[in-house]
Amino acid sequence: MEKKEITVRKLPIMLCAVLLASAAAGCGSKDRGDGSGHMYDAPLQGNPKSLDPQYASDASSNTVIKNMYSGLMKTDDSGNISCCNAEKYTVSDDGLTYTFALRKDNYWFIDKNGNDIIEKSEYFPVTADDYVFALQRVLDPQMQSPYSAYYSCIQGGSMIIGGQKKATDAGVTAKDKYTLEIKLDYPSSEFLSLLAAAPSYPCNKEFFESTKGTYGLNDKSVMSNGAFYMRQWMFDPYGHHNILYMRRNDVNMNLDYEVIPSYLSFTIQNDEDGVRQCFKDDEIECFTTSSGSDSTKKYSITSKSATTLGLVFNDKNGYFKSSALRNAVALSIDRDKLADELSDDIQPAYGIIPPAARLAGRSYREISSDRVLSSYDPEKAKNLILKAKNELGVGSIENAKIMVCADTVNSSYLHLVTQNWQDVLGVYIGIEDVSEEEFYRRLDEHDFSLALYPLKGEMSSAYSVFRNFESDERLKSAYDGVNHFAEILKCTSVSETAERCTVAEQAILDKNGFVPVFYKNSYLVADKDNEDIFFDPFTGAVDYRLAKNYS
Question: 404 in a domain, yes or no?
Answer without folding.
Answer: yes
